[in-house]
Structure prediction request, 176 residues.
Amino acid sequence: MPARSKARKRAVDILFESELRGTDPVRTLADWRARADPPVPAYAVALVEGVTARRDELDELLGRHAEGWTVARMPTVDRIVLRIGAYELLWCPDIPAAVAISEAVGLAATLSTDDSPSFVNGLLARLLELRPESAAGAEAGSDGGLDCPPGVGGEDPPTDQLLGEQAGTLVIDHRE
Prediction:
């Protein structure tokens, strides 16, 4: 599993624990880092801190674009995966949109219900339209004024087979 995929999973673990316990995510992150078992990758730290800092904005966007769902009504894992995916999609210009969506769909497939991957894919595809032009065409190392640290945590998989279009609908291909 690539380094950033592991970091995303660790960020989900930390944010999930924080939500279930009703604790501050940054405090939960500090506890995980102090234990250092398992280690918390730098990219997971960046994701937890970024999602926490933008949580209200993320929830507002997710709630506005989710059809028939409120953020509070979403399964906890889906909500957390969507926050991470939306954060990467909208505030991390060094993460290709296809990767952000594919990774979120993969997490939902592994950690949530059978219906979750398609729900996550559809909602993030709607948010893709909001991705700033500067982020969509950003060069590596250019932050486009956004707040996700570039280059932290290793490489993502190539995007050439992750994203396709089919009848105007965003489709993520998870074949190995």
In short: DSSP finds eight helices and two strands in the chain.
